[in-house]
Amino acid sequence: MTMSRLVDPFGRQHNYLRISVTDRCNLRCIYCMPEEGMEFEPTDNILTYEEIVDVVRVVAEMGIRKIRLTGGEPLVRKELEKLVAMISSIPGIEDIALTTNGIFLAPRAARLKEAGLTRVNISMDSLRPDRFKSITRGGDVRKVLDSIDACVKAGLSPIKLNVVLMKGINDDEIADFITLTQYRDIHVRFIEYMPIGHSDSQWKNLYLPLNRVEEVCAEQQWQYEAETTIRGNGPSENYRLHGAVGSFGLIHPVSEHFCQTCNRLRLTADGYIKPCLAWTEQFQVRSVIGDDAAIRQLFLDALGTKPENHEMSKFLQDEQDISHTPTARRMSQIGG
């Protein structure tokens, strides 16, 4: 099998699989879960590590080279290091990343690195303890800061911080996050709030286009330049302040979608292939695990339905002429 097998109807080549290992999370971030929480999948519905590895082995033969483990919060799964080690031993897999809220990461960073983890993205939407606790509905920002230090010590690089910007919530911390990059090898990613599973009034009221980041840089009279050397930069437009050690980037799926370069597929914790984050289409792969030919065909079928773009910008204007049905699953149920 070659990478060219994983090409969608628009000629986009796919080499990246994001795998949600659980829909459960220890936090209840305001943009990800409703306050009352979610009804989680029964444990029996969640893919086992062996099932995940079977799928990865097949798609690695089809050209998948990069894996990202997500959730929910992936570190609520027991012994995640075992899954990392199993995936890292699969021929063709070159990069294994983790997206985490960082609360449980500090004591496990070194073991994850030893198992084969390449790098981490840590979700961190505020540097202020009280505000962080409010956004996450209970999180302790000090544990996340400890995890950043532990990742540096373990040699996990690059370390990226995912910051979902929300109007009137944390947009006054843009300068503080960028200042972090001046003296530390940290790569901040400002992300637009996406209407995944809920294009409601809360989302519209909190949505903030990322040109605000550029305005803050102008207000601070900061000079910056494009940065193109960071590994695994995906859809982020990256920049570095003059003389800074780290960088900051902009991921704007709503105001300037990057679908034309999309190279990723998703595998949900309950065993569905999702060709696009925003739409409802999904393909149950769990029932065919053990049949490599059937897994291959299902991934090709999923790719065949992948739309040209996710049309999220239309949700802001309440436009009705969307081409697909938006997903009702929240981000935690799909995988970030």
Which structural traits does this protein have?
single chain; twelve-stranded mixed beta sheet; 336 residues; alpha/beta; TIM Barrel
Describe this entry's structure for a reader.
With 336 residues, the protein is α/β, with parallel strands linked by helices. It has 11 helices and 12 strands.
Q: If you compute it from the alpha carbons, what radius of gyration comes out, rounded to the nearest whole angstrom?
A: 19 Å
Largest sheet: 12 strands, mixed
Strand order in the sheet with the most strands: 7-8-9-6-5-4-3-2-1-10-11-12
Please tell me the overall pLDDT.
Answer: 89
Summarize the helix and strand pattern as letters: EHEHEHEHHEHEHHEEEEEEHHH
CATH architecture: Alpha-Beta Barrel
Pairing-aware structural class of the strands and helices? alpha/beta
Q: With helices defined by DSSP (H or I, 4 residues minimum), what is the helix count?
A: 11
The helicity comes to 25-40%
The CATH superfamily is: Aldolase class I
Characterize the overall form.
globular
N-end to C-end Cα span: 28 Å
Low-pLDDT segments? none
Strand runs, count? 12
**CATH structural fold name:** TIM Barrel
In what range is the share of β-strand residues?
A: 15-25%
Number of domains: 1
CATH top level class name: Alpha Beta
